[in-house]
Specification:
The chain has 465 residues and is of the alpha/beta class. The protein is built from 17 helices and 14 strands. The protein has a 7-stranded antiparallel sheet, covered by helices on one side. Strands 10-9-8-11-12-14-13 form a 7-stranded mixed sheet, with helices on both faces.
Length: 465
């Protein structure tokens, strides 16, 4: 699937800065479902064109995923997904052009809010509603829309036309504004998403819809389709949009993390966790490590000092956290051996990802408690059944210890985003069943100052295959 952006006028040369991609280079990025390539077919003082080409692997999408398609076996492999602009393109935009989508530009910050003459082209857009729907979505936002309906097969004109269109959008606006519109509306046109939709998708819609979706004449249709016709979620999103409650989910998560750190500060728990996990990896002789849910890279910063570790990869769903991790690790300032040893990837832990396979060890430090209990099965399959590292280290809060934290109200969890906090018995029961199902042994260790009755503030499980 192909998405191009063309900038003209006095600010055209700023497109490369906004995209954080150099015009002289072809850059390739791994994705959970394939690869993305960014290149510039045109780069002059008057006009710059950047292209995002997503090379999707349809076999990787369904291999080992029960229920991955509602159609038959052939439908799983023979479909339009490798070519059509769909939710896969939106995910690629978020992962590869995340800084531009969020409106961040360190080198030229004045360009973020600058209106630029832009032309976006999308190849093979599934318009389930036709060109009429396409225009009704983009024209109220000020775009000049050109749409050409594609034949089912050029070799057989009698077959007629399909639902796919080549689309061109023209507008003078900040780049982040155009990317937000495309990010939200492409899955709406397709009326489908390739991944599970839950409350986190409401957060994305509210955040990326801020400033335009609440007043859009098709806002109900947009919310309904974006959230895969889940009425409760659509109502929640619209209520928040109309009330003006559009928070940056990354910024909110950062604030909650700071609150948790303040609660645990008296026992220096953050440092103790990192030391304990690093020691466990050393004891297991791990030379290649993937930190799943790496956040801002604190554990990676500790592990990179261990020269026995030859490869480090951090994975997180938050692009902002990865940006902070990159700064912490100084990846943009160092070349040579350090940059070769460390890599940061944007991705979810709930889906099988070939990039996560082949490591000696994987770590999940204070990660599982941020997931709904119903989704731990997906995490288990992606990490223990598919990636299958030799060692997996998991840490999570010990709920019994919470009464020791005087700043934490009774009955509350340490972090506002925690979906659960387990007692020692609950954690050991879960870990034991995961180990048994996937061919691992598991041992447990306390982290932090222990109470004779309540145990330690953090509990750690070390799985060995």
């Amino acid at each position: 699937m192909l998405f191009t952006l063309r900038a003209t006028g006095p600010h055209a040369s700023g497109l490369g800065y906004l995209l954080h991609k150099h015009p002289d280079k072809l850059q390739t990025f791994p994705l959970a479902f394939g690869r993305a390539h960014v290149f510039y077919p045109e780069a002059s003082a008057e006009a710059v064109t950047a292209a995002l080409l997503v090379d999707l692997d349809p076999v990787a999408l369904v291999r080992g995923r029960p229920g991955s398609s509602e159609g038959g076996l052939v439908d799983q492999y023979v479909n339009d997904r490798p070519y059509a602009a769909s939710s896969f393109l939106s995910v690629a935009i978020a992962q590869v052009l995340g800084s531009a989508l969020a409106g961040r530009c360190k080198d030229r910050p004045e360009l973020v809010q600058t209106s630029i003459a832009l032309e976006a082209t999308l190849s093979a857009v599934p318009c389930r509603g036709g060109a009429t729907l396409l225009r009704s979505l983009f024209e109220p936002l000020g775009y000049e829309v050109t749409a050409s309906r594609l034949p089912l097969d050029e070799r057989f004109p009698a077959w007629g036309e399909g639902t796919h269109h080549d689309v061109r959008l023209r507008k003078a606006c900040p780049l982040s504004e155009l990317l937000s519109h495309v990010y939200v509306l492409v899955p709406v046109l397709d009326d489908d998403k390739h991944y599970w939709v839950g409350d986190d998708e409401v957060e994305k819609l509210v955040y990326h819809g801020e400033g335009w979706l609440a007043t859009h004449p098709e806002k109900e249709l947009i919310a309904r389709r974006y959230l895969k016709h889940r009425a409760r979620l659509a109502r929640a999103a619209l209520d928040r949009l109309v009330s003006g409650e559009a928070k940056d989910p990354d910024a909110e998560a950062e604030a909650h993390a700071e609150e948790e750190a303040a609660i645990e500060a008296p026992v220096r728990l953050d440092e103790a966790r990192i030391e304990a996990v690093a020691r466990a990896l050393s004891d297991e002789g791990a030379k290649t490590v993937v930190d799943l849910g790496c956040g801002e890279g604190k554990l990676l910063a500790k592990l990179v000092r261990n020269r026995a570790i030859t490869q480090l990869v951090g994975v997180d769903v938050s692009q902002r956290a990865l940006d902070v991790a990159s700064e912490r690790l100084k990846l943009d300032r160092h070349g040579g051996r350090k940059s070769e040893r460390i890599e940061l990837l944007h991705g979810s832990l709930l889906y099988r990802d070939a990039r996560l396979a082949g490591f000696d060890a994987a770590t999940l430090v204070e990660v599982i408690e941020h997931m709904e209990l119903s989704r731990l099965g997906a995490l288990e399959r992606s990490v223990f059944a598919h990636a299958r590292p030799r060692v997996v280290v998991v840490t999570t809060p010990n709920a019994e210890y919470n009464v020791v934290f005087t700043s934490l109200p009774a009955g509350h969890m340490r972090h506002k985003d925690h979906r659960f906090e387990w007692t020692r018995a609950e954690f050991e029961a879960w870990a034991g069943s995961v180990a048994e199902r996937n061919g691992y042994a598991v041992r447990f260790a306390p982290i932090g100052p222990a109470d004779d009755t309540l145990g330690s503030p953090t509990q750690m499980a070390v799985f060995s295959r």
